[in-house]
């Protein structure tokens, strides 16, 4: 899989892809993440990539020409399954979206900045718009890193235990049940006896009920969706 990220602030993306699972995935050759500095496609020698918006109102807008030139160069080199624009008014990012994107071969993520990007880019070149929440960041870089992380960890071979990602929260519509590790008794705080029983079937039943109860408590919206209750 290849992920190309277009940004006006490339240094913001250096750390997220240089550590832990995301770094190992790249080292294994399972994914290639390429960050493109939009200023390399600036309209003049001053590195200009933004300008004032037409009409009234404050704030700068990413200009159409630099973004267009970058997209055209990338798309001349390979076919892309998606051109994703990170924007607060996009579709809410969910686990099912991460699952879908993990099956793609090549995707582009365009990071918004300032007041956003020229609307013509969104109308004619973007195939999907995604938001990671109902709030506004300084730019789409951190949101792009979130998307990439959620997608990359689903690629077969990235996690040492491939079943791990399949039991994460939201994969089955519920949040994950509580988890415990050694020691079984720490200062009188004990691991539930069922988890020490060795009875796999009963443990799975316990985990399911715990996930159901926790979802009802913490995410009643998901609980109602899962159970069909009104």
TrEMBL record:
Residues binding S-adenosyl-L-methionine: 112, 132-137
UniProt KW tRNA processing keyword: yes
Signal peptide residues on this chain, from the entry's feature table: none
Catalytic activity as recorded in UniProt: guanosine(37) in tRNA + S-adenosyl-L-methionine = N(1)-methylguanosine(37) in tRNA + S-adenosyl-L-homocysteine + H(+)
Chief localisation class: cytoplasm
Residue span(s) of domain tRNA methyltransferase TRMD/TRM10-type: 1-225
Keywords: Cytoplasm, Methyltransferase, S-adenosyl-L-methionine, Transferase, tRNA processing
Coiled coil: none
Pfam families to which the protein is assigned, alphabetical: tRNA_m1G_MT
Subcellular location as annotated: Cytoplasm
Enzyme Commission number: 2.1.1.228
GO biological process, one term: tRNA N1-guanine methylation
Keyword 4Fe-4S appears in the UniProt entry: no
InterPro entries found in the cross-reference section: Alpha/beta_knot_MTases, tRNA_m1G_MeTrfase_C_sf, tRNA_m1G_MeTrfase_TrmD, tRNA_m1G_MTases_N, tRNA_MeTrfase_TRMD/TRM10
One cellular component term from this protein's GO annotations in UniProt: cytosol
Source superkingdom: Bacteria
GO molecular function: tRNA (guanine(37)-N1)-methyltransferase activity
Functional summary from the UniProt entry: Specifically methylates guanosine-37 in various tRNAs.
PANTHER family: TRNA (GUANINE-N(1)-)-METHYLTRANSFERASE
Assembly, per entry: Homodimer.
HAMAP family: TrmD
Name under which the protein is recorded: tRNA (guanine-N(1)-)-methyltransferase
Name of encoding gene: trmD
